[in-house]
Protein backbone atom coordinates (compact mmCIF):
# COMPACT_ATOMS: atom_id res chain seq x y z
CA UNK A 1 0.00 0.00 0.00
CA UNK A 2 1.37 3.40 -0.89
CA UNK A 3 0.47 6.48 1.08
CA UNK A 4 0.13 9.83 -0.68
CA UNK A 5 3.56 11.34 -1.09
CA UNK A 6 4.76 14.76 -2.14
CA UNK A 7 5.22 14.05 -5.81
CA UNK A 8 1.85 12.31 -6.18
CA UNK A 9 -0.61 14.44 -8.11
CA UNK A 10 -3.68 15.17 -5.98
CA UNK A 11 -7.03 15.11 -7.83
CA UNK A 12 -8.55 18.58 -7.72
CA UNK A 13 -11.81 20.30 -8.47
CA UNK A 14 -13.43 23.53 -7.31
CA UNK A 15 -16.10 26.12 -7.90
CA UNK A 16 -15.53 29.15 -10.11
CA UNK A 17 -17.61 32.26 -9.55
CA UNK A 18 -17.33 35.99 -8.88
CA UNK A 19 -17.75 36.42 -6.02
CA UNK A 20 -17.49 32.85 -4.77
CA UNK A 21 -16.93 33.41 -1.05
CA UNK A 22 -20.45 32.33 -0.06
CA UNK A 23 -20.56 29.11 -2.08
CA UNK A 24 -21.47 26.04 -0.05
CA UNK A 25 -20.06 23.66 -2.66
CA UNK A 26 -16.66 23.29 -0.89
CA UNK A 27 -18.49 22.06 2.24
CA UNK A 28 -20.51 19.62 0.15
CA UNK A 29 -17.59 18.12 -1.76
CA UNK A 30 -15.28 18.38 1.25
CA UNK A 31 -17.74 16.26 3.26
CA UNK A 32 -17.85 13.59 0.56
CA UNK A 33 -14.05 13.52 0.13
CA UNK A 34 -13.64 12.95 3.87
CA UNK A 35 -16.53 10.48 4.11
CA UNK A 36 -15.01 8.30 1.39
CA UNK A 37 -11.44 8.70 2.64
CA UNK A 38 -10.30 10.15 -0.67
CA UNK A 39 -7.19 12.16 -1.30
CA UNK A 40 -8.48 15.16 -3.18
CA UNK A 41 -9.18 18.87 -3.03
CA UNK A 42 -12.17 21.04 -3.80
CA UNK A 43 -11.53 24.79 -3.60
CA UNK A 44 -13.27 28.12 -3.97
CA UNK A 45 -11.84 29.65 -7.12
CA UNK A 46 -12.60 33.35 -7.53
CA UNK A 47 -12.48 34.11 -11.27
CA UNK A 48 -13.46 37.59 -12.51
CA UNK A 49 -15.40 37.68 -15.81
CA UNK A 50 -12.42 39.05 -17.75
CA UNK A 51 -10.32 36.04 -16.70
CA UNK A 52 -12.92 33.35 -17.43
CA UNK A 53 -11.80 32.35 -20.94
CA UNK A 54 -8.15 32.19 -19.88
CA UNK A 55 -8.94 30.17 -16.75
CA UNK A 56 -10.97 27.65 -18.74
CA UNK A 57 -8.30 27.37 -21.45
CA UNK A 58 -5.63 26.66 -18.80
CA UNK A 59 -7.72 24.15 -16.82
CA UNK A 60 -6.54 20.99 -18.66
CA UNK A 61 -2.91 22.07 -18.20
CA UNK A 62 -3.16 22.16 -14.39
CA UNK A 63 -1.81 18.89 -12.94
CA UNK A 64 -4.55 16.93 -11.22
CA UNK A 65 -7.38 19.27 -12.17
CA UNK A 66 -10.42 17.10 -12.95
CA UNK A 67 -12.91 19.92 -13.50
CA UNK A 68 -15.00 22.60 -11.85
CA UNK A 69 -18.47 23.65 -10.82
CA UNK A 70 -19.56 26.94 -12.31
CA UNK A 71 -21.66 29.48 -10.49
CA UNK A 72 -22.84 33.07 -10.88
CA UNK A 73 -22.03 34.95 -13.10
CA UNK A 74 -20.29 32.41 -15.37
CA UNK A 75 -22.91 29.71 -16.01
CA UNK A 76 -23.94 31.07 -19.42
CA UNK A 77 -20.58 32.54 -20.52
CA UNK A 78 -18.79 29.23 -19.99
CA UNK A 79 -21.03 27.32 -22.42
CA UNK A 80 -19.30 28.32 -25.69
CA UNK A 81 -15.90 27.57 -24.10
CA UNK A 82 -16.68 23.83 -23.88
CA UNK A 83 -15.56 21.31 -26.52
CA UNK A 84 -18.78 19.36 -25.87
CA UNK A 85 -21.95 19.98 -23.88
CA UNK A 86 -24.73 17.62 -22.92
CA UNK A 87 -28.29 17.96 -24.14
CA UNK A 88 -29.66 19.18 -20.80
CA UNK A 89 -27.06 21.98 -20.58
CA UNK A 90 -27.94 23.01 -24.12
CA UNK A 91 -31.66 23.16 -23.31
CA UNK A 92 -31.11 25.02 -20.03
CA UNK A 93 -28.65 27.32 -21.79
CA UNK A 94 -26.07 27.10 -19.01
CA UNK A 95 -23.29 24.86 -17.72
CA UNK A 96 -22.72 24.22 -14.01
CA UNK A 97 -20.30 21.26 -14.18
CA UNK A 98 -17.12 20.97 -16.26
CA UNK A 99 -15.18 17.72 -16.58
CA UNK A 100 -11.68 17.51 -18.06
CA UNK A 101 -11.80 14.50 -20.38
CA UNK A 102 -8.90 12.03 -20.66
CA UNK A 103 -7.85 13.72 -23.92
CA UNK A 104 -7.79 17.13 -22.18
CA UNK A 105 -10.97 18.43 -23.82
CA UNK A 106 -13.70 19.99 -21.71
CA UNK A 107 -17.18 18.51 -21.30
CA UNK A 108 -19.88 20.79 -19.93
CA UNK A 109 -23.08 19.59 -18.33
CA UNK A 110 -25.84 21.02 -16.23
CA UNK A 111 -26.81 19.00 -13.17
CA UNK A 112 -29.36 21.47 -11.75
CA UNK A 113 -32.32 19.72 -13.41
CA UNK A 114 -31.07 16.37 -12.08
CA UNK A 115 -30.56 17.88 -8.62
CA UNK A 116 -34.06 19.34 -8.61
CA UNK A 117 -35.87 16.15 -9.63
CA UNK A 118 -33.71 13.93 -7.40
CA UNK A 119 -34.46 16.18 -4.44
CA UNK A 120 -38.20 15.82 -5.06
CA UNK A 121 -37.85 12.05 -5.45
CA UNK A 122 -35.89 11.78 -2.21
CA UNK A 123 -37.94 14.14 -0.07
CA UNK A 124 -41.53 14.01 -1.38
CA UNK A 125 -44.01 11.71 0.37
CA UNK A 126 -44.15 8.12 -0.94
CA UNK A 127 -46.52 7.88 -3.88
CA UNK A 128 -46.14 11.48 -5.03
CA UNK A 129 -45.08 11.65 -8.70
CA UNK A 130 -44.38 14.75 -10.77
CA UNK A 131 -46.30 13.51 -13.82
CA UNK A 132 -49.56 13.04 -11.89
CA UNK A 133 -50.87 16.55 -12.60
CA UNK A 134 -50.17 20.15 -13.57
CA UNK A 135 -47.20 21.98 -12.06
CA UNK A 136 -47.01 25.68 -11.24
CA UNK A 137 -43.60 27.39 -11.42
CA UNK A 138 -43.01 30.92 -10.14
CA UNK A 139 -40.20 32.80 -11.89
CA UNK A 140 -38.63 32.71 -15.34
CA UNK A 141 -34.91 33.20 -14.73
CA UNK A 142 -31.99 30.76 -14.96
CA UNK A 143 -33.20 28.59 -12.08
CA UNK A 144 -36.65 28.33 -13.66
CA UNK A 145 -35.11 27.02 -16.90
CA UNK A 146 -33.52 24.09 -15.03
CA UNK A 147 -36.79 23.35 -13.19
CA UNK A 148 -38.79 23.50 -16.43
CA UNK A 149 -36.43 21.08 -18.22
CA UNK A 150 -36.54 18.72 -15.23
CA UNK A 151 -40.34 18.74 -15.03
CA UNK A 152 -40.87 18.30 -18.78
CA UNK A 153 -38.42 15.38 -18.76
CA UNK A 154 -40.29 13.91 -15.77
CA UNK A 155 -43.45 13.82 -17.88
CA UNK A 156 -45.33 16.89 -16.62
CA UNK A 157 -47.91 17.61 -19.33
CA UNK A 158 -49.03 21.05 -18.11
CA UNK A 159 -46.67 23.58 -16.59
CA UNK A 160 -48.13 26.91 -15.55
CA UNK A 161 -45.43 29.58 -15.50
CA UNK A 162 -46.05 32.81 -13.60
CA UNK A 163 -43.56 35.65 -13.76
CA UNK A 164 -43.64 39.33 -12.83
CA UNK A 165 -42.40 40.18 -16.33
CA UNK A 166 -44.88 38.18 -18.41
CA UNK A 167 -42.77 38.49 -21.57
CA UNK A 168 -40.12 36.22 -20.05
CA UNK A 169 -42.75 33.55 -19.31
CA UNK A 170 -44.07 33.89 -22.87
CA UNK A 171 -40.54 33.53 -24.29
CA UNK A 172 -40.00 30.32 -22.27
CA UNK A 173 -43.36 28.96 -23.44
CA UNK A 174 -42.33 29.66 -27.06
CA UNK A 175 -39.02 27.91 -26.47
CA UNK A 176 -40.15 24.87 -24.48
CA UNK A 177 -43.46 24.16 -26.21
CA UNK A 178 -47.14 24.00 -25.52
CA UNK A 179 -46.88 22.23 -22.13
CA UNK A 180 -45.58 25.54 -20.74
CA UNK A 181 -48.42 28.04 -20.24
CA UNK A 182 -47.65 31.64 -19.25
CA UNK A 183 -49.65 33.02 -16.32
CA UNK A 184 -49.88 36.72 -15.43
CA UNK A 185 -48.24 37.48 -12.08
CA UNK A 186 -51.54 38.86 -10.75
CA UNK A 187 -53.25 35.56 -11.59
CA UNK A 188 -50.72 33.37 -9.74
CA UNK A 189 -52.98 32.52 -6.80
CA UNK A 190 -55.97 31.54 -8.96
CA UNK A 191 -53.72 29.39 -11.18
CA UNK A 192 -52.97 27.12 -8.21
CA UNK A 193 -56.32 25.36 -8.67
CA UNK A 194 -55.77 21.70 -9.51
CA UNK A 195 -51.96 21.69 -9.39
CA UNK A 196 -49.89 18.73 -8.19
CA UNK A 197 -46.77 20.82 -7.51
CA UNK A 198 -45.87 24.43 -6.72
CA UNK A 199 -42.23 25.56 -7.07
CA UNK A 200 -40.81 28.98 -6.24
CA UNK A 201 -37.74 29.78 -8.36
CA UNK A 202 -37.80 33.53 -7.74
CA UNK A 203 -35.55 35.22 -5.22
CA UNK A 204 -38.61 36.31 -3.24
CA UNK A 205 -38.54 35.00 0.34
CA UNK A 206 -34.75 34.73 0.42
CA UNK A 207 -33.05 36.39 3.40
CA UNK A 208 -32.75 40.09 2.59
CA UNK A 209 -35.27 39.94 -0.29
CA UNK A 210 -38.95 40.93 -0.30
CA UNK A 211 -41.45 38.25 0.80
CA UNK A 212 -43.23 36.02 -1.72
CA UNK A 213 -46.86 37.02 -1.60
CA UNK A 214 -49.22 34.34 -2.86
CA UNK A 215 -52.55 33.22 -1.37
CA UNK A 216 -52.66 29.44 -1.07
CA UNK A 217 -56.44 29.04 -0.70
CA UNK A 218 -56.83 27.41 -4.14
CA UNK A 219 -53.88 25.03 -3.72
CA UNK A 220 -55.06 21.37 -3.48
CA UNK A 221 -54.23 19.80 -0.09
CA UNK A 222 -52.15 17.05 -1.72
CA UNK A 223 -50.00 19.39 -3.83
CA UNK A 224 -46.28 19.27 -3.08
CA UNK A 225 -44.67 22.66 -2.39
CA UNK A 226 -40.97 23.28 -3.07
CA UNK A 227 -38.96 26.46 -2.67
CA UNK A 228 -35.53 26.46 -4.26
CA UNK A 229 -34.58 29.22 -1.81
CA UNK A 230 -32.71 27.52 1.08
CA UNK A 231 -31.72 30.55 3.12
CA UNK A 232 -33.83 30.51 5.22
CA UNK A 233 -34.34 26.76 4.99
CA UNK A 234 -38.00 27.08 5.92
CA UNK A 235 -39.24 29.98 3.86
CA UNK A 236 -42.51 31.73 4.58
CA UNK A 237 -44.02 29.86 1.59
CA UNK A 238 -43.00 26.48 3.00
CA UNK A 239 -44.18 27.39 6.51
CA UNK A 240 -47.59 28.48 5.23
CA UNK A 241 -47.92 25.41 2.99
CA UNK A 242 -46.97 23.10 5.84
CA UNK A 243 -49.38 24.94 8.16
CA UNK A 244 -52.31 24.05 5.90
CA UNK A 245 -51.20 20.43 5.58
CA UNK A 246 -49.40 20.37 2.22
CA UNK A 247 -46.30 18.19 1.84
CA UNK A 248 -43.20 20.38 1.45
CA UNK A 249 -39.61 19.96 0.21
CA UNK A 250 -36.99 22.57 1.05
CA UNK A 251 -34.39 23.96 -1.34
CA UNK A 252 -31.27 22.43 0.17
CA UNK A 253 -31.84 19.06 -1.51
CA UNK A 254 -31.44 20.54 -5.00
CA UNK A 255 -28.03 21.97 -4.07
CA UNK A 256 -26.86 18.67 -2.57
CA UNK A 257 -28.14 16.37 -5.31
CA UNK A 258 -26.82 18.59 -8.16
CA UNK A 259 -23.32 17.97 -6.80
CA UNK A 260 -23.48 14.19 -7.16
CA UNK A 261 -22.64 13.76 -10.90
CA UNK A 262 -19.65 16.13 -10.72
CA UNK A 263 -18.18 14.45 -7.65
CA UNK A 264 -18.50 11.03 -9.27
CA UNK A 265 -16.88 12.23 -12.52
CA UNK A 266 -13.96 13.94 -10.75
CA UNK A 267 -13.25 11.57 -7.87
CA UNK A 268 -14.64 8.23 -9.07
CA UNK A 269 -17.10 7.53 -6.25
CA UNK A 270 -20.89 7.97 -6.44
CA UNK A 271 -21.77 9.93 -3.28
CA UNK A 272 -25.11 10.04 -1.50
CA UNK A 273 -27.17 12.69 0.23
CA UNK A 274 -27.70 11.95 3.92
CA UNK A 275 -29.00 13.84 6.97
CA UNK A 276 -25.36 14.19 8.14
CA UNK A 277 -24.45 15.88 4.85
CA UNK A 278 -27.38 18.30 5.22
CA UNK A 279 -26.20 19.24 8.72
CA UNK A 280 -22.59 19.69 7.62
CA UNK A 281 -23.51 21.93 4.70
CA UNK A 282 -25.87 24.04 6.82
CA UNK A 283 -23.33 24.48 9.63
CA UNK A 284 -21.42 27.76 9.63
P1 LIG B 1 -32.02 32.97 -11.17
O1 LIG B 1 -30.94 32.70 -12.18
O2 LIG B 1 -31.65 32.62 -9.76
O3 LIG B 1 -33.33 32.37 -11.57
P2 LIG B 1 -32.75 35.57 -12.20
O4 LIG B 1 -32.47 35.08 -13.57
O5 LIG B 1 -32.26 36.91 -11.81
O6 LIG B 1 -32.16 34.55 -11.11
O7 LIG B 1 -34.33 35.47 -11.95
C1 LIG B 1 -34.94 35.98 -10.81
C2 LIG B 1 -36.44 35.68 -10.86
O8 LIG B 1 -37.03 36.25 -9.67
C3 LIG B 1 -37.15 36.29 -12.04
O9 LIG B 1 -38.22 35.44 -12.42
C4 LIG B 1 -37.67 37.60 -11.45
O10 LIG B 1 -38.80 38.13 -12.11
P3 LIG B 1 -38.60 39.13 -13.41
O11 LIG B 1 -38.28 38.24 -14.57
O12 LIG B 1 -39.88 39.84 -13.55
O13 LIG B 1 -37.45 40.05 -13.06
C5 LIG B 1 -38.07 37.15 -10.06
N1 LIG B 1 -38.14 38.28 -9.15
C6 LIG B 1 -37.12 38.96 -8.56
N2 LIG B 1 -37.58 39.95 -7.78
C7 LIG B 1 -38.96 39.92 -7.87
C8 LIG B 1 -40.03 40.69 -7.30
N3 LIG B 1 -39.78 41.71 -6.46
N4 LIG B 1 -41.29 40.36 -7.63
C9 LIG B 1 -41.56 39.32 -8.48
N5 LIG B 1 -40.58 38.56 -9.05
C10 LIG B 1 -39.31 38.85 -8.75
Give your account of this protein's structure.
With 284 residues, this protein is an alpha/beta fold. The protein folds into two domains: 6-111 and 255-282, Leucine Dehydrogenase, chain A, domain 1 (Rossmann fold); 125-246, Rossmann fold, CATH 3.40.50.720. Helix content is 32%, strand content 18%. It has ten helices and twelve strands. It has helices at residues 25-35, 52-58, 87-92, 112-123, 142-153, 166-176, 236-243, 252-258, 260-267, 275-282; strands at 12-17, 41-46, 65-70, 84-85, 97-100, 106-109, 135-138, 159-163, 180-184, 197-200, 224-227, 248-249. The protein has a six-stranded mixed sheet. Helix 4 (112-123) packs across helix 5 and helix 4 crosses helix 8. The longest helix has 12 residues, at 112-123. The protein is globular and about 60 Å long. The mean pLDDT is 96. Bound molecules: 2'-monophosphoadenosine-5'-diphosphate. Residues 139-144, 163-165, 168, 201-204, 210 line the site of 2'-monophosphoadenosine-5'-diphosphate (ATR). Residues 139-144, 163-165, 168, 201-204, 210 line the site of 2'-monophosphoadenosine-5'-diphosphate.
Amino acid sequence: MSAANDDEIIPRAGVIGWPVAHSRSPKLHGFWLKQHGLTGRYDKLPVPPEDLAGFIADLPKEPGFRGVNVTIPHKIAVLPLMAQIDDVARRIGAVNTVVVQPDGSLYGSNTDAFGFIESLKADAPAGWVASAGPAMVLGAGGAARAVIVALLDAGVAELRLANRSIEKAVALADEFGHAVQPVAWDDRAAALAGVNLLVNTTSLGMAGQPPLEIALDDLPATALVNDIVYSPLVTDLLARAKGRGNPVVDGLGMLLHQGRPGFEAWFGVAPSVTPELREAVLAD
